[in-house]
Amino acid sequence: MDFKQRFETFLESDSLLEYFVLAALAVALSFLVHYIIFKILKLIDRKSDAELWDAILSKGFQSTRYFLLVIFLFIAKGVFVDAVGDRQTIISDILNISLIATFAWLLVSTVNIIRASMLSRYEIDVANNLHARKVHTQFKLLGNILKFVIVIIAIGLALMTFDGIRQFGVSLLASAGIAGIILGFAAQRLIATVLAGLQLAISQPIRLDDVLIVEGEWGKVEEMTLTYVVIAIWDKRRLVVPCTYFIEKPFQNWTRVSSDLLGTVFIYTDYRFPVDALREELKRVVAESSLWDEKVAIIQVTDSKEKTMELRVLVSAKDAPTAWDLRVEVREKLIAFIQREYPEMLPVSRIEMHGQSQPSSDIKKD
């Protein structure tokens, strides 16, 4: 007798009311036990500063309730086995599936509780958050992998409780060779993606809140999942990149070791420009700026072109967004200084006129 026939027989029985009574008693008792357990946990939470109890109360409430419900229904079925009689098979099928589902839910909640408890010790919204970002990345990716494995195992166990479905699956895989090949290739890509996500969690070439240059785009790592990484671009776009990208292709990580960066500003002037005067102005500008981290502020002549000389200004800041703002501020104030104090030293084009009694040169500004 298959599941459908057993279920129809169960509905047509004269003792259906008995099962509702037994189920109601089991539900009431399970809810009472659940209420007592979490009441005790709330009292413990009030007397303790540990984040573990907060995580249990917030993330384990619902899963624990329904897991206890299924457990008490199993107990009720065993206690009243005589009343259940030949209908025990249909009840067992339903309870087996419910037990697998609720237990998997409880395991997922446990992973979330452990992860939330551990991550609460590491604040990521601080200036020096390198170690915190490392821990957040590891726990979030490994947690996603564990939950994925739990769900897959639970689905497989639930399907194996039915003989008809298990036999259908075996015959389908045995007869459909082409479908098996397609599924094999699909599983291969999936496994490669999962392994890439696991490798990112262990080796950590990138972490949450890292500043990256990916596909020519500048942005921060906003989210890391088992299969993809979300990059928040500076103009509020989102770049979604598969985990395998960071294993197979090169990319820039501006915060791999530390978050502080050097910002570069290029200024082009006439050859006669006094560089030392601009160095003094740079010291004054960065000293008055709240964006500078007081580490690096130098000017160097890095190139001499046909008509101008190239001045490279290096300034340091605590992170990439601050370095960008500092570069903009320094560039603007140094250009204003040159315009105000040395306007004749801006890039010019020289034209020499021949045919006069004495050589002369006129200067024409670009």
Task: Offer a quick outline of the entry.
The chain is of the alpha+beta class. The protein has twelve helices and ten strands.
Distance between the termini: 94 Å
Helicity, in percent? 55-70%
Helix/strand class: alpha+beta
Q: What is the radius of gyration computed over CA atoms, rounded to a whole number of angstroms?
A: 35 Å
Instruction: Trace the largest sheet across and list its strands.
Output: 4-3-2-1-5
Average pLDDT figure: 78
Low-confidence stretches: 168-179, 359-366
H-E order: HHHHHHHHHEEEEHEEHEEHEE
Question: Main β-sheet, in a few words?
Answer: 5 strands, antiparallel
Please, how many domains?
A: 3
Instruction: Tell me the number of strands.
Output: 10
**How many individual helices?**
12
Overview of this protein structure:
- This protein is of the alpha+beta class and 366 residues long.
- The protein has three domains: 3-202, no CATH class; 206-253, Roll (SH3 type barrels), CATH 2.30.30.60; 261-350, 2-Layer Sandwich (Alpha-Beta Plaits), CATH 3.30.70.
- It is 59% helix and 17% strand.
- The protein is built from twelve helices and ten strands.
- Strands 4-3-2-1-5 form a five-stranded antiparallel beta sheet.
- Strand 3 (228-233) and strand 4 form a beta hairpin.
- The relative contact order is 0.06.
Quick tags:
366 residues, alpha+beta, SH3 type barrels, Alpha-Beta Plaits, five-stranded antiparallel beta sheet, 10 strands, elongated
What layout of secondary structure does this protein have?
Blueprint: H1 3-11, H2 16-47, H3 51-59, H4 61-79, H5 81-84, H6 88-119, H7 130-160, H8 163-175, H9 177-203, E1 211-214, E2 217-224, E3 228-233, E4 238-242, H10 245-248, E5 252-253, E6 261-269, H11 275-288, E7 297-304, E8 309-317, H12 320-341, E9 348-353, E10 360-365
Antiparallel strand pairs: 1-2, 1-5, 2-3, 3-4, 6-8, 7-8, 9-10
Helix pairs in contact: 2-3, 2-4, 3-6, 4-6, 6-7, 7-9, 11-12
